[in-house]
Amino acid sequence: MTSGSAGPAPRYATYWEQQISQRQQRQEQVPEAVRGLGDDYHPFDPKTGQAVSAEQLQQCLGQRFATIERLAGEAGLSAPCREKIAKAKRVLPRLVATLAWFWHSLGLLVESLELSPDQERIVYERLLPGLYWQGAAERARYPSRSPNCRYTAAL
């Protein structure tokens, strides 16, 4: 047998390279999806400053959990790991309810100020998002890298 013969080795090498590549992609996607849960759980959109409704939050977080569950299935995680994901997902309705309560309470507070419609619009569209993201940026793990700083810098 000559050393230049091309047997099945290249085919197997390609297979294992693909497997390694897919595993690396999942390893990068999982932390991103988990961080995304925290990135999405805010009453204001970090890019636009627009208010996030409870329904919008439910949809965003639901998509994040769907991604995490898909990646866990692809990775073949153990039953205890999948149970931890399911346990975290069960908190989702409470997170959404907290945001609904936040908007209800805030609405009552702003209403009590008896502002004109224009003043109320400014409070909701500019003042509250700006104050929220300013405070969030101060509490951020890495304030200079926080995507939310983009909105407050635009104010």
Keywords:
single chain; 155 residues; mainly alpha; 6 helices
| Main pleated sheet | none
SSE order in H/E notation? HHHHHH
Judged by helices, strands and strand pairing, the structural class is: mainly alpha
Q: Roughly what percent helix?
A: over 70%
Mean pLDDT: 84
* Contiguous uncertain segments of 5+ residues: none
Question: In percent, how much strand structure appears in the residues?
Answer: under 5%
Shape: elongated
Distance between the termini: 73 Å
Number of helices: 6
In total, the number of strands is 0
Rg over alpha carbons? 23 Å
Descriptive account of the structure:
The chain has a domain at 10-115. Helix content is 74%, strand content 0%. The chain has helices at 9-40, 54-75, 79-89, 92-112, 117-139, 149-154. It is elongated. The model has no long low-confidence stretch (mean pLDDT 84).
